[in-house]
């Protein structure tokens, strides 16, 4: 909540500054060089597809940009640091030029080049010694709002699909249709495993949704495995839907509750990273061949890594700025681990039984997970999350 309030305050302050800037653009431009020492002038031409030049280097301090619009549309030109608009010039008509005088700190910036879909240009602002200084490695709370908001949308979508798919499994079990229940089981469970980094925050529900205990043959009303493991044991080990109706109904009810809780949950970035690192750590310690549901366990682990990859991808622009070498290692090990599992999972949705990992692949997979665990733990430090 503190993160959300702080981020909200920062956005409010940013909007106030932006509104003031828009209120008197002509005054700002007029106050450029005339208000003090002359500032260097840099020409930028924006075409239909790009900026020319697309990479600029300027010294820190006051600088004037002359933006020429050689496209067929009215456009705006922006200087961005992460998701923040540092400064901009709006309503540049086709064939005309406007000037923007601004003061820049050393760092790496992006510049817009016409349409939103066009590649952005790069602006490097050097310090007094003439060397390029990167923007501060640790992102601000405002820069983290975008990735966390997108992740919440992703989790909500997976939760919706999870409830729908698991209801299909419950219906098949109630009808005594073993083949259909088996076919639907793995695709349904994969939705849960993709959002495991945050779903496991609710320990009470995780125990009833994904509990593994010593006695898989327990009766409906006795302690033991619940949720997906209980149903998977019945469908694949006992090859029967008998005695699973109550468990399936309970599972679906718990998933509806989980979806509701996730809908109101604020997911701060440190929980995203911690959840991803913890999940990979659990996978590294687990048996790699088979699983509690036979070979379908590999499909579930692939879904786990797909969920981790979503977090990594959303945070990657910030990770690349903070620690490029760390970002590259995480990408390489995650891609390598996914590639190994993909060779053993015949169907993309996990509806077919997986092929057990070979000893060579098992060793390689363990190595990838070990390195990935260490690097995801470092990611919190790199992003300034604790």
Brief summary of the model shown:
The chain has helices spanning 2-23, 25-30, 141-174, 178-194, 196-199, 203-209, 227-237, 245-264, 269-285, 296-322, 324-342, 359-382; strands at 41-46, 51-52, 55-59, 61-69, 75-81, 84-92, 97-104, 107-111, 121-126, 292-295.
Describe the protein in words:
With 386 residues, the protein is an alpha+beta fold. The protein folds into 2 domains: 29-126, Immunoglobulin-like, CATH 2.60.40.420; 141-382, Up-down Bundle (A middle domain of Talin 1). The chain has helices spanning 2-23, 25-30, 141-174, 178-194, 196-199, 203-209, 227-237, 245-264, 269-285, 296-322, 324-342, 359-382; strands spanning 41-46, 51-52, 55-59, 61-69, 75-81, 84-92, 97-104, 107-111, 121-126, 292-295. The strands form 2 sheets. Strands 3-9-8-5-6 form a 5-stranded mixed sheet, with no helix packed on it. The chain has a 4-stranded mixed sheet with strand order 2-1-4-7, with no helix packed on it. β5 and β6 form a beta hairpin. α3 (141-174) runs antiparallel to α8 (245-264), α3 (141-174) runs antiparallel to α10 (296-322) and α7 packs antiparallel against α8 (245-264). The longest helix is centred in the middle third of the chain and has 34 residues, at 141-174. It starts with a helix and ends with a helix.
Break the fold down into its secondary structure elements and pairings.
Blueprint: H1 2-23, H2 25-30, E1 41-46, E2 51-52, E3 55-59, E4 61-69, E5 75-81, E6 84-92, E7 97-104, E8 107-111, E9 121-126, H3 141-174, H4 178-194, H5 196-199, H6 203-209, H7 227-237, H8 245-264, H9 269-285, E10 292-295, H10 296-322, H11 324-342, H12 359-382
Parallel strand pairs: 1-4, 3-9
Antiparallel strand pairs: 1-2, 4-7, 5-6, 5-8, 8-9
Helix pairs in contact: 3-4, 3-8, 3-10, 4-7, 4-10, 7-8, 9-10, 9-12, 10-11, 11-12
